[in-house]
Specification:
The protein is of the alpha/beta class. It is built from seven helices and 14 strands. The protein is globular and about 55 Å long.
C-alpha cells in the first residue's frame, strides 16, 4: 500500500500569484507546491483519490495517473473540490459513473455546485455518483474509517484507509486535536497531516500541533502537508524530529 502526494500546498499554492515565494527558496523544486490532494494505492493497483484540487489535471499528468477507482472529499472548500471537472476523462472507458464519497454537508454542496457532474446534462452521461461516507464500509479494495475534525467554524473529514495489512491516514485542514481523532488514527503506518505554518492559525494545524498529533496517535511515519510560503523545505527538514517527513508534490511513500 502506498500514498502519492499529488499536492502539498495551501489554498494559494507556493509561489503565490505574483511570484511570491515568501520564505521559500525558489531554487528548491520541492518548495513549488500545488493545492493538496493524495492518491492511496493498494497492492492490486486500485486507487482512491482524496480531494479534487484546483490543480488536479496537472497533478494527474505529472504523476502518470490515468484512472482512479473512487474519490473521497475531506470537505467542500474550493482548493479541495473545484478541480472536479478534470475527472471527466476518467468516465470515458467506464460503464458506470465514478463513485464519490463525502460527509453530509459536503455531499449537499457538491450536488448544488456541480449538478452536471452528478446528474448529467444535454445528452452527456452522469460522470459521478455520490454517497455519504456513513453508508459504506468497503470501497475499491479498501476498508476505511473516518472522523469529523474541527476546521475553524466547520469540519473536515479525516480518513483512515486500510489494505494489505497496512493503513494510511489523511488528516488535513483541522484546527484542534480531539479524542475521536486519536482513536481513529491510532497506530497508523503513515499519517499525512495538516501543517500550515509554525505559528498557530484559527482554522489549520501548525507545526507543533502536527507533531503532537503524530506523537499522540503513535503514527510510524508522519508526512507534513498543506504547507504555506513560510515553510521552506530545507529549513523544515533540519527542524523536524525523526519520524516526520516534510511532504512535497510527487512524494511517494510505501506503508
Amino acid at each position: 500500500m502506498k500514498v502519492i502526494m499529488l499536492g502539498s500546498g495551501t489554498s494559494t499554492g507556493v509561489p503565490r500569484i505574483g511570484n511570491d515565494w515568501g520564505e521559500c527558496d525558489p531554487s528548491e523544486p520541492r518548495n513549488r507546491r500545488s493545492r493538496v490532494s493524495i492518491i492511496v494505492e493498494n497492492d492490486a493497483r486500485q486507487r482512491i483519490l482524496v480531494d479534487t484540487s484546483t490543480d488536479l489535471r496537472a497533478q494527474l499528468l505529472a504523476n502518470g495517473i490515468e484512472k482512479v477507482d473512487a474519490v473521497f472529499w475531506t470537505h467542500d472548500h474550493a482548493d479541495h473540490c473545484h478541480g472536479i471537472d478534470d475527472l471527466r476523462v476518467m468516465r470515458y472507458d467506464r460503464s458506470n459513473p465514478l463513485p464519490g464519497f463525502a460527509n453530509t454537508r459536503t455531499c449537499k454542496n457538491l450536488l448544488r455546485r456541480f449538478d452536471y457532474i452528478f446528474d448529467g446534462q444535454h445528452g452527456y452521461p452522469t460522470l459521478m455518483s455520490l454517497k455519504e461516507v456513513s453508508q459504506v464500509q468497503l470501497v475499491a479494495g479498501f476498508s476505511f474509517d473516518y472522523v469529523e475534525m474541527p476546521h475553524g467554524p466547520v469540519t473536515s473529514t479525516g480518513f483512515r484507509f486500510e489494505a494489505d495489512g497496512k493503513s494510511i491516514v489523511y488528516a488535513t485542514d483541522f484546527s484542534e486535536i480531539t479524542k475521536d481523532m486519536i482513536d481513529c488514527f491510532k497506530g497508523t503506518d503513515i499519517l499525512v497531516v495538516d501543517c500550515l505554518r509554525r505559528r498557530p492559525h484559527p482554522t489549520h494545524a501548525h507545526l507543533d500541533m502536527a507533531i503532537d498529533l503524530a506523537r499522540r496517535c503513535k503514527a510510524k511515519t508522519a508526512v507534513l502537508t498543506h504547507l504555506d510560503k513560510t515553510m521552506d523545505y530545507a529549513s523544515l527538514v533540519d527542524e523536524v524530529p525523526s519520524g516526520i517527513v516534510v511532504g512535497y508534490d510527487g512524494l511517494e511513500l510505501r506503508a
